[in-house]
Amino acid sequence: MPPAAVARPPGTPGKAEPPGAARPPRPMPPQSAKPAPTARPAGSPRPAPSPAEGRPRPAGPGQAASAKPDSAAAAKPRPPVAGVAGPGGGGAAAAAKPRRSIKVPLQKPLGQILAELNKVTPEHLQEALALRKQRGGAIGAVLVDLGYCEQADVSMALAVQAGMARVDLDELEIPPDVIDKMDSMTARSYNVVPIEFDVGRLRVAMADPTNFRALDELHMLLDFEIDAALADPAAVVRALDKYYAHAESVESVISQLDQTAEWVVDQEESIDLEDIRAMSESQPVKKLLNLVLLQAIRDKASDIHFEPFEDDFKMRYRIDGVLYEMVPPPRHIALAVASRIKVMANLDIAERRVPQDGRIELTMGGKPVDLRVSVLPTMFGESVVMRVLDRTQVELDITKVGLREDEQRVIDDLIHLPNGIVIVTGPTGCGKTTTLYSALSAINTPDIKIITTEDPVEYDIEGLVQVQINPDIGLTFARCLRHILRQDPDVILVGEIRDLETAQIAIHSSLTGHLVFSTLHTNDAPTAITRLLDLGLEPYLVTATLEAVVAQRLVRRICMNCRAEFEPSEGMLWDLQLTPEDVRGRTFYFGRGCEQCNNTGYRGRTGVFEIMYIDDALRDLIIRGSSTNVVREEAKKRGMRMLRDSGLMAIYDGITTIEEIIRATVTDQ
């Protein structure tokens, strides 16, 4: 059977040819149809054909010229082309010369740099090299393991190896105007020294070359481009003591601001956006705000308040739950301070009519600090409050929140339940979030999936899936909770039960085998039952899912450095509804005040708790619709310790004072 014919493309004249059939040779194209020569740089010589290759045949239309040499010719080395300029020069003689190699500068060995910096001796270096030859590893790590140098020395040597400039601060005389670019508290917090300033660019000497985040934050705080140079750590300390011997305080900066009226602004007149931006970037305002932030973090403040009034401008800190007023700055810088904070928080400085929320991330003294910014327009300007979230000041340990031994055992049982609802209740700022975070941290293991919904997410905890609620786009607790159930969680934290829909989904989550933690705003534990029923929940659903309610308060601890005994008066005992006979043999304490506690007598806070465990007797009362007082009395009979009773035990233990317990709790719950 003859082979199948191969069809030609459509429109091609002629018949189909069988495969393998020889085609007649194509006619050579006319000379005029010769393809245009390839463009060549002007002045370059025309290459001559190689003898081994011969003259190439011209290609027909649509057919590329073959550049493939014969196999015999390809095996031979190609001779130099006459007249073609080589890398070393022109002509055949130049082509015969060997090519020049490009020399790449080699980095100095790390050990050699450490020796030149007088951090190790040659003998130590030789010993470390011999040890590295045996076990491997980096020479810097070997020297540190042998104890011949510190990790900071290795970091410095690595910076030198990478080409970072080094300065000798002892030999350098820094101009006063450069020192004035950075206040004392900022320089000491970041352990840097300004050494040079030129057209918006500040060069600083630092001891830690790996602290790149500090450079970014200095750029944000000072609004300069920041360059870094390497300096000896001891030289940095000496330079700080030399140039910042008289530390600048908030009071001194405010006194300087009092002498100028540069930012005097009438609240009723319109202000140009460029003027507002210039105010926010002015050096005195930056210096004041940096000092305020650093002092607040140093004093462990939880909130910083900037409040404009008709005739004055107040700054206040909240430390251990109590507000303290600072030296008030001049009224005319209120707009400049608010604008500077908005710039740092990436908010709209031109918008002064609506509230705004933002966030500032800093690292102070090597510690990460998160500032939550809230801007609220008022009659006399914008009130700004910054919540200071210093993770290092909060121990997320359930054993260190103030629970007594018997309370600790109850909480341990609750957080290891397979399902159910546990509610923590109390007013704003009573430590509910810290208690819940601590409870979750205790069960945060690889075999348990925990998802939280919060408004806002205050602390980022590794191992937890945390969701930020955003009502503006419809991401509410209820909507988020519905989708969380599809994520296969074991434990769920609902930031707050605010409405019936959220409460119903929380109960549904518990009934389907999840352990749910949440919060409510009530004064004590029994009132939480009434609150849930008022939201519209059925009593049988509450009794089927609710396992316990924990009420708590925060009270200030007595400073252990200045704690002293005292004898309370009858009036103080009467405020506690006690008599001298009730406290016979008891010892009471107070804080005299010292430098460690800023002369307040208190340092830190602890919790007092009221835990109502829901058992069958309380469930029967809830089903019958009993009042809050009936539920409270029954819970007390079954062992619930009231907030006031927990406070009295803290007084007797010398942890807090009578005044603190009277302030935080009441007798008739």
Describe the structure.
The protein is α/β, with parallel strands linked by helices and 669 residues long. The protein has 25 helices and 18 strands. The strands form four sheets. It has a seven-stranded mixed sheet, with helices on both faces. Strands 6-5-4-9-8-7 form a six-stranded antiparallel sheet. Strands 1-2-3 form a three-stranded mixed sheet. Helix 4 (122-135) crosses helix 5 (139-146). The radius of gyration is 39 Å and the shape is globular.
Could you give the topology of this structure?
Elements: H1 71-75, H2 91-96, H3 110-116, H4 122-135, H5 139-146, H6 151-161, H7 176-179, H8 184-190, E1 192-198, E2 201-206, H9 212-222, E3 225-230, H10 233-243, H11 250-258, H12 273-280, H13 283-298, E4 303-308, E5 313-319, E6 322-325, H14 334-344, E7 356-364, E8 367-378, E9 381-390, H15 405-415, E10 420-425, H16 432-442, E11 450-454, E12 464-468, H17 477-484, E13 491-494, H18 500-511, E14 515-520, H19 525-534, H20 539-545, E15 546-558, E16 563-566, H21 570-575, E17 588-591, E18 602-613, H22 616-623, H23 628-637, H24 643-652, H25 658-664
Parallel strand pairs: 2-3, 10-14, 10-15, 11-12, 11-13, 13-14
Antiparallel strand pairs: 1-2, 4-5, 4-9, 5-6, 7-8, 8-9, 15-18, 16-17
Helix pairs in contact: 3-6, 4-5, 11-13, 12-14, 17-18, 19-23, 20-22, 22-23
Can you summarize this structure?
With 669 residues, the chain is an alpha/beta fold. The protein has 25 helices and 18 strands.
